């Protein structure tokens, strides 16, 4: 402990050093010293808290770091750490003194002043090159010190490098702040940047202001290439209309021009691919599967950018093992190029094509890449194709399973014609398959598009038929799950993707179609009575139930022969039908029949009944339920009615000959002048006509209708799709129309047949009631002498009052058999019969010839030739 | 004596380090003043009181210098 005297002396010295005596008088100096002593000795301050001092110094260091005065902070910390080695109790007090005396060290940085401080005792001087060379001189002529020459050829653009040895310059060596020796080569007070200073590394990224010409370093070229790939403008590459190109005046030291050109082309291509993909991704789209495609492309682009960032990182912060060179850059481009380049190639092919073209091109590109063995490109394109395809197929699955269409999806190739559903036209007219335009199916689905349409229509049909929404069950398929789909494409690269996908898809669609059709057929059979309806159509239209028809038509033809104008009255006919079907045990069938009657002819009943054409005024319409109306169309029903009419006309002719003509010639003399040979002649003619009619009817029913109907039912039962069912029935109807001469194309033959049938009626009229006017029997009323008006008046008065057709009623109303023939004076019945025969032969000859001609012409009418053969055997001798 | 020599060297080294810290903290103390301060503190002088005294002294000196500078231009002008 020093004496007070020593303390005072120190205090005076300190005070003097601060006052600087030259500037102040002694009196003043004395005063200041006294005050100084007083302030030092007399105080109320507490003792120094060393922990507080340490905290304040730590806070100061943090403050320097925050203010980016890292050097100051590091210097302070370094010296504090050095002080820890010295065990002195008064050190915290000294530091406390410094803290109290501290001005503004952050602003008044005094690092430079540390240079003026003499080096500490024992600090070794910095190592200098001349000291090393003095100690261990190097051989400058040793090959080790020569600069290697990487040139392949001696290009004229290269400078001639002298193989000189460059010794490290002492000026470039690191200088430690605050501890350097006084080096004559170093300027005092000049601070050199420490290369480990991170702030200095930003200078690496600055580009030159003007386009370079001549040589640039490899590092500079790589840097600019990386900038270009990041989308920044650079000087070494210029943007022309067809992409980026290297400035031709630029060469890279150490890289041959040809190699440089190739590398520059690769860089330009990669940048172009990146720009193309970016612009495509940025374009807005409302198409869901294109959006999925873009999302997958965005992932690939993201991976590329990560890779580029890693390359950038490797360049800016090279590690011990990394080498930044043009070769490394070329390898990076090779690694990055496959994905983006593949996408850019297929986008080039798409051009301005629509969404479907885009999907088709992607599919083709994927297939091609696999077939050419480019597995990397194949994997990359698969990652785009699979999500897009799964999104595209989503509405297709909904359509296949439930027959449901999304209202706002215009990309699907099946669309509804209208928002409302007309159930009888559900199958034919409700849905439309687009084959052209933006909604068309892609080429790889085009072959299955008709099956897809049929399957969806079947599902929709089922939904409507079941009366509730057909939720269906999710079809298990690897094509449905995106992850599984992707996994399957990569499972075995040797399996052709296109073949695998198309086979799987075809199998799924076919299986669905079959199952849906089976379900529909079962529903049609159980709930819609499809087989029963076909049978009913046969009974109503095709004369399959002769007992039923006989019952109805006997009454009908009788009404015609009685010249009743209301012979085709709907209500009476309805009663006849009800009665007849009820007797056959099918009372429900007439509920589906609508009777159409026409009263259009102005001719009298007497003249109308002489032809089978009178039956045109009657038609039966069998009303099908809407499910069956989809299978059996309206045109088929029309054909049924046409066939039914012809059959009825044939039966009419047969009825006339059997009931009237034949009986008359067998039992009643023709007239009073008729000889036995005349009678015999009339009988033979009757046989001939009857034979003709029977042959004809037998051909229509037994030879044609029976086998065709049986074949049709088998085909309908075995049909795999609804279209096949419809086609089978339509085919059947077509053949029926030709075979029964009901088709429009064989109208000529039908007309000839009608004429023949009319001749049969004529014959019956001749032989049954032919008489001269003067030989009228008063027991028979001759309706030809009654005016049509009076007859009709009488009819209307009674038809709603009575349904019975007793003879008494007929006698009272004045109706009777009106098949009276009034012969001219110069003719006889026999002569008329001979005329009938002549006409019949002529017409038959024409008819048979026509049958043969038509029969040989087409494949559906071969049985007409058979009919012609049978009819030609019918000769009148 | 080696121990005295090493003690001196250590003391000198400590003062060197303290001088550098003093420069970094912008205390405006030269080496001589620093040595005197260290001696005073070693002998029990309170550092905060010492610091206040130094600061007060500096203020006085500065104000006196300023007063002297104000007087001198007037005297030159009168001449």
Automatic annotation (TrEMBL), chain A:
Record region (Disordered): 156-180
Alphabetical UniProt keywords: Cytoplasm, Cytoskeleton, Microtubule
Pfam families with a match to the protein in the record: GCP5-Mod21_N, GCP_C_terminal, GCP_N_terminal
Compartment list: Cytoplasm, Cytoskeleton, Microtubule organizing center
InterPro entries named in the record: GCP, GCP5_N_ext, GCP_C, GCP_C_sf, GCP_N, Mod21_N
Gamma-Tubulin ring complex non-core subunit mod21 N-terminal domain: residues covered: 67-155
Residues spanning the signal sequence: none
Domain Gamma tubulin complex component C-terminal positions: 533-875
Ranges for domain Gamma tubulin complex component protein N-terminal: 222-513
Main location: cytoplasm
Family: Belongs to the TUBGCP family.
Protein known as: Spindle pole body component
TrEMBL record, chain B:
UniProt key word Cytoplasm: yes
Keyword hit for Ribonucleoprotein: no
One Pfam family, short name: MOZART1
Cellular compartment(s): Cytoplasm, Cytoskeleton, Microtubule organizing center, Spindle pole body
Superkingdom, natural source: Eukaryota
Keywords of the record: Cytoplasm, Cytoskeleton
Subunit structure: Part of the gamma-tubulin complex.
Family assignment from sequence similarity: Belongs to the MOZART1 family.
Function: Required for gamma-tubulin complex recruitment to the microtubule organizing center (MTOC).
Protein name per its UniProtKB record: Mitotic-spindle organizing protein 1
């Amino acid at each position: 402990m020093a004496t007070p005297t020593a303390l005072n002396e120190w205090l005076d010295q300190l005070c003097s050093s601060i006052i600087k005596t030259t500037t102040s008088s002694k009196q003043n100096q004395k005063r200041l010293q006294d005050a100084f002593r007083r302030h030092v000795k007399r105080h109320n301050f507490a003792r120094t808290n060393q922990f507080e001092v340490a905290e304040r110094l730590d806070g100061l260091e943090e403050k320097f770091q925050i203010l980016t005065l890292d050097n100051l902070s590091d210097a302070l910390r370094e010296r504090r750490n050095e002080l820890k080695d010295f065990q002195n109790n008064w050190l915290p007090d000294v530091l406390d003194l410094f803290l109290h005396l501290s001005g503004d060290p952050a602003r008044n940085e005094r690092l430079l002043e540390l240079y003026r401080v003499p080096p500490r005792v024992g600090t070794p001087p910095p190592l200098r090159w001349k000291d090393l060379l003095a100690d261990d001189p190097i051989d400058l002529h040793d090959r080790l010190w020569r600069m290697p020459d990487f040139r392949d050829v001696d290009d004229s653009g290269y400078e001639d490098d002298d193989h000189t040895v460059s010794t490290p310059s002492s000026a470039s060596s690191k200088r430690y702040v605050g501890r350097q020796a006084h080096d004559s080569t170093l300027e005092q007070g000049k601070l050199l940047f420490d290369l480990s200073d991170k702030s200095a590394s930003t200078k690496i990224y600055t580009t030159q202001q003007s386009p370079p010409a001549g040589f640039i370093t490899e590092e500079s070229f790589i840097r600019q290439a990386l900038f270009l790939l990041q989308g920044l403008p650079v000087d070494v590459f210029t943007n022309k209309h067809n992409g980026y190109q290297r400035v031709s005046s630029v060469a890279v030291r150490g890289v041959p021009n040809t190699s440089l050109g190739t590398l520059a082309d690769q860089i330009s291509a990669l940048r172009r691919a990146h720009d193309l993909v970016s612009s495509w991704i940025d374009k807005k789209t409302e198409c869901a599967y294109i959006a999925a495609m873009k999302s997958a492309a965005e992932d690939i682009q993201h991976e590329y950018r990560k890779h580029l960032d890693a390359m950038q990182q490797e360049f800016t912060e090279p590690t011990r093992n990394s080498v930044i060179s043009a070769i490394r850059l070329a390898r990076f481009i090779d690694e990055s190029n496959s994905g983006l380049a593949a996408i850019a190639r297929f986008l080039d092919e798409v051009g301005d094509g629509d969404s479907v073209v885009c999907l088709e091109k992607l599919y083709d590109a994927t297939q091609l890449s696999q077939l050419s063995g480019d597995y990397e490109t194949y994997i990359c394109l698969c990652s785009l194709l699979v999500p897009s395809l799964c999104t595209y197929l989503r509405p297709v699955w909904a359509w296949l399973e439930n027959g449901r269409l999304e209202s706002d999806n215009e990309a699907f190739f099946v669309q509804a014609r209208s928002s409302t559903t007309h159930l009888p036209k559900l199958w034919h007219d409700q849905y439309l398959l687009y084959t052209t335009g933006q909604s068309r199916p892609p080429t790889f689905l085009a072959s299955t598009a008709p099956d897809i349409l049929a399957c969806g229509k079947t599902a929709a049909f089922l939904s409507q038929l079941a009366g509730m929404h057909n939720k269906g069950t999710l079809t298990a398929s690897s094509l449905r799950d995106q992850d599984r789909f992707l996994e399957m494409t990569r499972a075995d690269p040797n399996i052709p993707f296109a073949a695998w996908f198309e086979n799987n898809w075809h199998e799924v669609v076919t299986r669905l179609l079959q199952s849906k059709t089976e379900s529909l057929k079962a529903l049609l059979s159980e709930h819609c009575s499809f087989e029963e309806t076909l049978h009913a159509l046969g009974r109503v239209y095709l004369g399959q139930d002769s007992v039923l028809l006989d019952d109805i038509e006997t009454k009908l033809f009788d009404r015609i022969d009685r010249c009743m104008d209301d012979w085709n009255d709907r209500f009476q006919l309805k009663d006849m039908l009800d009665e007849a079907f009820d007797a056959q045990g099918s009372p429900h069938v007439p509920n589906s029949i609508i009777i159409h009657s026409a009263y259009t002819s102005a001719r009298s009943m007497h003249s109308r009944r002489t032809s089978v054409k009178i039956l045109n005024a009657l038609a039966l319409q069998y009303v099908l339920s809407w499910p069956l109306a989809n299978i059996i169309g309206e045109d088929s029903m029309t054909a049924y009615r046409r066939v039914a009419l012809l059959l009825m006309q044939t039966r009419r002719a047969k009825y006339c000959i059997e009931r009237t003509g034949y009986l008359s010639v067998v039992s009643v003399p023709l007239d009073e002048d008729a000889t036995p040979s005349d009678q015999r002649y009339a009988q033979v003619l009757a046989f001939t006509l009857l034979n003709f009619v029977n042959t004809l009817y037998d051909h229509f029913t037994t030879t044609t209708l029976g086998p065709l109907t049986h074949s049709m039912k088998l085909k309908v039962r075995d049909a795999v799709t609804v279209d096949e069912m419809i086609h089978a029935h339509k085919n059947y109807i077509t053949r029926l129309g030709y075979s029964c001469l009901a088709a429009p194309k064989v109208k000529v033959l039908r007309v000839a047949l009608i004429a023949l049938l009319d001749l049969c009626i004529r014959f019956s009229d001749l032989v049954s009631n032919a008489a001269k006017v003067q030989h009228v029997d008063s027991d028979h009323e001759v309706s030809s002498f009654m005016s049509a008006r009076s007859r009709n008046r009488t009819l209307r008065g009674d038809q709603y009052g009575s349904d019975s057709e007793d003879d008494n009623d007929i006698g009272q109303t004045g109706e009777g058999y009106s098949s009276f023939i009034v012969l001219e004076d110069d003719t006889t019945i026999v002569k008329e019969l001979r005329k009938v025969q002549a006409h019949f032969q002529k017409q038959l000859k024409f008819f048979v010839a026509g049958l043969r001609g038509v029969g040989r012409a087409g494949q559906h009418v071969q049985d007409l030739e058979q009919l012609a053969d049978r009819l030609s055997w019918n000769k009148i001798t | 004596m080696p121990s005295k020599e090493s003690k001196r060297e250590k003391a000198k080294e400590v003062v060197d380090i303290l001088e550098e810290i003093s420069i970094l903290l912008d205390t405006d103390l030269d080496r001589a003043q620093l040595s005197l301060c260290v001696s005073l503190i070693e002998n029990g002088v309170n550092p905060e009181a010492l610091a206040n005294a130094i600061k007060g002294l500096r203020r006085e000196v500065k104000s006196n210098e300023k007063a002297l500078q104000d007087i001198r231009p007037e005297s030159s002008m009168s001449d």
